[in-house]
């Protein structure tokens, strides 16, 4: 039996209605959509992590390697153990919380912050192993489960439009239309989007990859032709990797000593809640998009991808990076036809290759990569069709889930808002008996989460 046949058999590719080529394209698409984390995560974490005797650039390179290795390990577990087409890496938002709130805001040593992430990972492994994490996710109200995909879609769309400078900050209205005609990045982004949408509408396989690569090549062609200087529509410099991460890896062990118990517990609590609901929302949303959910809106054997997430977080802390989570960009690969763990295996392999190809990855401008988010974000809006908008409990719970995600820049906040609203509205319309006791407890816990997040306790 050849390698291709073994892969088809192990991942049940044909049973899932896919093939090796489609899975490979899906993996490449997902990787291209999320590869920005290799560059962005080090920049954010290096604001908080300083290592004596090493420059900021050196530290950034160490974090880049830790980012790649943690993504590789977590996604490999997802591929081989969970056999799902989801990819993982250090999460955006969680890295900013790590750097700016925990380390710079609270003054907690970065080693201690890594220790908090490590403890969070161990807790996740334990509760996933006994099925508690699966039980909590299955308590999510149906309107939340069926609206989370559309919420993530708008979130993806919003992120992509910002990165492409099509939507910009505004003092009066918070957001506004960017200066598209005057911005080379926005202009190329619109052009890339147009090409990608046309290819997708025509049913061209790999449309998103083609759009990203074509936009990148066009940007570099304009740079080499002298139309733009380096740094305008292409990266100004191409970094080379720093492979010695010994000053960073294992630093969490130093952070386990001399901690203030109350502060440490609060930090672990916040990491735990944000990661828990971020991952749950992503898994459910991408699974809904890919048609993986059962009739109750649950993902069969969800404990397996949850375990991959838990292991990734633990390994990431040991290597020296913030919380690892399942990526919403996985939906780009699912859109390209990825249905099995083979897609994740391709992503894991590309992360490993990235250890020697960081300069090539760095050559892809961020605005080109984010084309994938805009395209998939629009496609995921179809999830609103699964919500019963005539039912008050569904309308309020689903509506909050969808809108709070992009408006607060957090999948976790959107899920929490929808979960808290559901039992309240159900009771208001006289259907309190339909609310499970566990859903009330979950709602109460999330009210506590919102209090901790918004009361200034972490500042």
Describe the secondary structure blueprint for this structure.
Elements: H1 3-10, H2 20-34, H3 37-45, H4 56-82, E1 88-90, H5 94-103, H6 110-129, H7 132-138, H8 142-163, E2 167-170, E3 174-177, H9 184-201, H10 207-224, H11 252-255, H12 261-290, H13 303-319, E4 324-326, H14 330-335, H15 341-353, H16 358-362, H17 366-369, H18 371-379, H19 392-408, H20 411-428, H21 437-454
Describe the structure.
It is a single chain. The protein is mainly alpha-helical and 459 residues long. It has one domain. The chain is built from 21 helices and four strands. The chain has helices at 3-10, 20-34, 37-45, 56-82, 94-103, 110-129, 132-138, 142-163, 184-201, 207-224, 252-255, 261-290, 303-319, 330-335, 341-353, 358-362, 366-369, 371-379, 392-408, 411-428, 437-454; strands at 88-90, 167-170, 174-177, 324-326. The strands form two sheets. The protein has a two-stranded antiparallel ribbon. The longest helix is centred in the middle third of the chain and has 30 residues, at 261-290.
> Percentage of helical residues?
55-70%
Major beta sheet, strand line-up: 1-4
Gap from first CA to last CA = 59 Å
Largest sheet: 2 strands, antiparallel
Gyration radius from CA atoms, angstroms: 21 Å
Q: State which percent range the strand residues make up.
A: under 5%
Mean pLDDT: 89
Number of strands: 4
Keywords: Cell membrane, Membrane, Transmembrane, Transmembrane helix, Transport
InterPro entries: Azg-like (IPR045018), Azg-like_bact_archaea (IPR026033), NCS2 (IPR006043)
Transmembrane segments: 24-50, 62-81, 88-108, 114-132, 144-161, 181-200, 207-228, 262-286, 306-328, 340-360, 367-385, 405-425
GO cellular component, one term: plasma membrane
């Amino acid at each position: 039996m050849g390698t291709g046949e073994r892969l088809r058999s192990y991942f049940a590719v044909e049973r899932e209605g896919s093939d090796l080529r489609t899975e490979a394209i899906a993996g490449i698409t997902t990787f291209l959509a999320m590869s920005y984390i290799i560059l962005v995560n080090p920049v954010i974490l290096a604001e908080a992590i300083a290592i004596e005797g090493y420059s900021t650039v050196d530290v950034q390179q160490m974090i880049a390697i830790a980012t790649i290795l943690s993504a590789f390990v977590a996604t490999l577990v997802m591929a081989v153990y969970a056999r799902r087409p989801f990819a993982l890496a250090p999460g955006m938002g969680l890295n900013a919380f790590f750097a700016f709130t925990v380390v710079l805001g609270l003054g907690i040593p970065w080693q201690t912050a890594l220790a908090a992430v490590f403890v969070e990972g161990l807790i996740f492994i334990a509760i996933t192993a006994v099925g508690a994490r699966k039980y909590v996710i299955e308590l999510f109200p149906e309107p939340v489960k069926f609206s989370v995909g559309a919420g993530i879609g708008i979130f993806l769309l919003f992120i992509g439009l910002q990165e492409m400078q099509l939507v910009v900050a505004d003092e009066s209205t918070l957001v506004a239309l960017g200066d598209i005609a005057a911005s080379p990045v926005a202009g190329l982004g619109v052009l890339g989007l147009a090409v990608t949408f046309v290819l997708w509408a025509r049913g061209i396989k790999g449309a998103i990859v083609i759009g990203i690569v074509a936009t990148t090549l066009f940007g570099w062609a304009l740079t080499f032709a002298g139309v733009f200087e380096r740094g305008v529509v292409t990266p100004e410099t191409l970094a080379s990797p720093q492979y010695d991460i010994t000053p960073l890896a294992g630093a969490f062990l130093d952070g386990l000593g001399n901690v203030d118990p109350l502060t440490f517990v609060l930090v672990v609590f916040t990491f735990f809640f944000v990661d828990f609901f971020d991952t749950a929302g992503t898994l459910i949303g991408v699974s809904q998009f890919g048609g993986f959910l059962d009739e109750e809106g649950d993902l069969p054997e969800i404990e397996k991808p949850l375990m991959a997430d838990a292991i990734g977080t633990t390994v990431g802390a040991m290597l020296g990076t913030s919380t690892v989570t399942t990526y919403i960009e996985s939906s780009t690969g699912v859109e390209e036809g990825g249905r099995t763990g083979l897609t994740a295996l391709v992503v894991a392999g590309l992360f490993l290759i990235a250890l020697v190809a960081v300069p090539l990855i760095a050559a892809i401008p961020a605005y080109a990569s984010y084309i994938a988010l805009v395209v998939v974000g629009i496609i995921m809006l179809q999830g609103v069709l699964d919500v019963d908008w005539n039912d008050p409990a569904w309308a309020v719970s689903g509506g909050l889930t969808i809108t709070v995600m992009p408006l607060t820049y957090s999948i976790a906040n959107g899920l929490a808002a929808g979960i808290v609203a559901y039992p309240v509205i159900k009771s208001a319309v006289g259907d309190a008996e339909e609310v499970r006791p566990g859903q009330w407890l979950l709602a109460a816990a999330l009210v506590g989460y919102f209090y901790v997040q918004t009361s200034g306790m972490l500042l």
